[in-house]
Amino acid sequence: MPSDAAVPTTAPGPGGASPAPATPREIADRYVRRLVAINPVLATSLGLPDRADEMPDFSPDGLAAEAAVRRETLAELDAAEAAAGGLAALDATERRCARLLRERLTASQALEEAGEQYRSLSTLFSPLHSTRQVFMLMPTATDDDWATVARRLGAVRGALASYRATLDLGRERGLLVGPAQVDTVLDQLGQWLGGGAPDGVPFFAGFAAKGPDVHRTALDTAAADADAGVTEFRDWLRDTYAPAAHADGRDPVGRERYRRAARYWTGSDLDLDEAYRWAWGEYARLDAEMRAEAGRVLPGATVREAMTWLDTDGPAIEGVEEVRQHLQGLMDTAIADLDGTHFDLAEEVRRVEAMIAPPGGAAAPYYTRPGIGFSRPGRTWLPTMGETRFSLWQLVSTWYHEGVPGHHLQLAQWVLVAPQLSLYQTSIGSVGANVEGWALYAERLMDELGYLTDPGARLGYLDAQQMRAVRVIIDIGMHLELEIPAAADQGVPVPFRPGERWTPAYGREFFGLNSGRPGDFLDSELVRYLGMPGQAISYKLGERAWLEGRAQARAAHEARGETFDAKAWHMAALSQGSLGLDDLVAELAAL
Questions:
Q1: Hey, how many other C-beta atoms are within 10 angstroms of the C-beta on 110?
Q2: CA nearest 582: which of 310, 265, 354, 292?
Q3: Between the N and C ends of the chain, which has fewer C-beta atoms within 10 Å?
Q4: What is the reported pLDDT for 7?
């Protein structure tokens, strides 16, 4: 697919007549092409070969170029809707795309106008992390592939310098991230520079060492330059930015910043107080269910005792490669069981790879989607955090979430249907609450289908569900510094600090009391929430929307005297492309 920014947005009319106005889908895909022309990392993440040996300009000028494309795209969308006679006059496919495009662009624009781009440092999904993650997505099968890798490695130092310029402008303007982000990113950079590798080799040097001897000099020279760029960034962050962040920054962002960020992650102007109250109800419901399940794991045990027993004496896998193979088998089995019964999967969608994440990232597992046209398979990634023994009780439902039927089935299906929708709707237009909501729904679906009858695996599933409810409570609570409800309103046997106001320290304490995850995982999670306000709530609120949409669709079918076909509904739902929470329930209910 070309990434030429001059791709036309109108088509010639019959017989040379005036060109027809561009449709929303055409405008959306032109937007993707224009962004790809600006951002080579985006091209690689989409599986496109464009400018594969370059890195983006993360400087204020580079960000201004992206902002200009957003404004121009919104103007084109205004003209297209006016030419069609308004949004309601468009057919359903074009209308969904138009609503998504407008909502996504205006959500990003609101963050830009508030200056959030000048404090974009976080422990995950930041420009810093993309400079490393992009190499994990590049093809490396041939000598020519490695020559491309070497040239891109040579551009890393400049990209990090451009990113530093943006953060430094934010520092000068008083637009700082909280101290927790800075301190944790400094720890991560220490791992990138060799602290996370058994042999002490920095990441880029270690990555280049995998390449062929024919490019050895070029790879080693470029990797050394990239690692030098990481060192320069680390030193500046430690010596210049960190003192300012510790002096003036704070971790909670407040209601206004949180409201804008939550809209970006969910595609909705949420009632944050309602979401906070609702999450406490979910927390109490899941707490009761977990107490019952703990007794099935270990008769008479508390939840904590059952989890401790599962960690020390429950089923486990020894070895990093062994756990990777186990997770691959778990996904392969799920595909074989679900295809034809609960989903109809194309051959391309049936391919997914389990991978081990490189050190120096967040503790949570994650997924990377297939490239356009399945040029690269979908992959799940397990951070080992230095461990070599892996308890299975938490991994089962997590891989239903990350792999099958979770992220992989949805995002691979989007790649499959992109030609019928638009590339935008099935790639960069994705809404976090839609994607994470589906993955959490997928965990629940596997429980409904009887795949979590083992008490340990089911307690792991409930623990994962409880973690997402806790995320809503503490993410909204910490950032808005809300009051913790009275004991009678918490609905659990042991209330937590009723009447006090949330702080990050209380958030970590509450998390530790209500999760079976290890302490380093919980520390990583809390810092992540503080650095990406609103992202953590997208899972549980997204799941709520998916469940409500399914319930309404089932009720509508039954009211018409029809049998609700869950398989057909799943495939139709997964083939709609991205939707924000403002639209998701209604669109799912209509299927």
A1: 15
A2: 265
A3: N
A4: 35
**Which DSSP symbol is given to 483?**
B
pLDDT of residue 157: 98
548 within domain boundaries: no
Nearest to 407 by CA among 574, 249, 262: 574
pTM: 0.93
Check residue 3 and give its pLDDT.
33
What pLDDT score was predicted for residue 249? 73
d(CA 521, CA 333): 28
Instruction: Determine the Cα–Cα distance for residues 391 and 287; give it in Å rounded to an integer.
Output: 22
Instruction: Tell me if 93 sits within 8 A of 16, measured CB to CB.
Output: no
CA distances from 336 to 216, 423, 457 (A): 42, 28, 20
Which ranges of the chain have pLDDT less than 50?
1-16, 18
Range of the domain at 476: 263-314+392-531
Instruction: Check: CB of residue 59 under 8 Å from CB of residue 160.
Output: no
Total Cβ atoms within 10 A of residue 89 = 11
> With the C-alpha atoms ordered 228, 170, 529, 509, is the resulting torsion angle positive or negative?
positive
Paired strand residues for 356:
382
| Phi (first) and psi of residue 366, to 5 degrees | -150, 175
CA dihedral 207, 212, 216, 218 (to 10 degrees): -80
Q: Are strands 366-368 and 316-318 parallel, antiparallel or unpaired?
A: unpaired
Q: Is 317 helix (H, G, I), strand (E, B) or coil?
A: strand
Assigned token pair, 41: 């990392």
d(CA 528, CA 475): 10
Taking only the tens place, the pLDDT of each residue in 271-317 is: 999 999 999 999 999 999 999 999 999 999 999 999 999 999 999 99
Does residue 454 come out as left (phi exceeding 0), alpha (psi in the -120 to 50 range) or beta? beta
Taking a C-beta distance cutoff of 8 angstroms, is the pair 40, 433 a contact?
no
Does 351 fall in a domain? no
Phi-psi region of 589 (alpha: psi -120 to 50; beta: other; left: phi over 0): alpha
- Considering the domain architecture, whether residues 276 and 135 belong to the same structural domain is answered as no
Other CB atoms within a 10 A radius of the CB of residue 26 amount to 22
pLDDT of residue 19: 61
- Same domain for 273 and 144: no
Q: How far apart are CA 515 and CA 343, in angstroms?
A: 32
Residues 158-215: tens digit of each pLDDT: 999 999 999 999 999 999 999 999 999 999 999 999 987 778 999 999 999 999 999 9
Q: In 561-581, which positions are buried (b, 16+ CB within 10 angstroms) versus exposed (e)?
A: eeeeebeebbbebbbbbbbbb
CA 376 and chain centroid, separation: 18
Supply the pLDDT for residue 287. Answer: 97
Q: How many domains does the chain have?
A: 2
Structure tokens of 294? 């703990």
* DSSP, res 391: E
8 domain-assigned: no
**pLDDT score for 198:** 78
pLDDT number for residue 517? 87
Q: Give me the residue label for tokens 């997402």.
A: 468
